[in-house]
Give the backbone structure.
Amino acid sequence: MKLNFRVYLLRARLLFYTLAGLSGQVLPQVLMRFKLAVSLLFFALAATGAGRTNRVAIGTLAYLGTGQFGSAFRVALDPSALTSQPLSFASVTLFVDGTSQTAGPITTPVTLLYIGGTVNSPLASCASGCVSIAVQLVSATGEPFSFNLLDGEEFTTFAVQTAALRPLPGQKLIQAQQSVPIVLKRNASGK
């Protein structure tokens, strides 16, 4: 529901003149009440814009660890807590210390497991440690896209989103079982 500022201002003026009485005198209490009403009106208008969701987490990126079969990475995408709509992406690409592997088109919910450091994998191993692990999501159209949140709010996000794992404070390398949320950010411009 959009608030119409003019309607509320007119109501505040009407209240002001009604409280001032027919004599036309403005009492200090009435003036104070008018100022309070106008202040509350501005606060209410500001609060309605502040209620917009600017970021939504749709999944996680995790470094699971390194074993005899290589280094394992998991990308889990499940926006069902936010929207009833499945989200589609043209590609989901994992980057590990300068190497990358693309999973191609996906539709949520989905969990992708990437293995690095093997003969057939283009991804680096984290056996000696990794300093950068990231995932990049590209929208199905290559353009910003919109979907409805469960509360009915329309959420428009960017065409390309990236989430990255970095070493924890005091660490030089990313640790096994370390994870980061995959977050879509609001694109207010829609461009």
Q: What stands out?
A: The first helix runs from residue 5 to 20. The first strand starts at residue 55 and ends at 67. DSSP finds two helices and eleven strands in the chain.
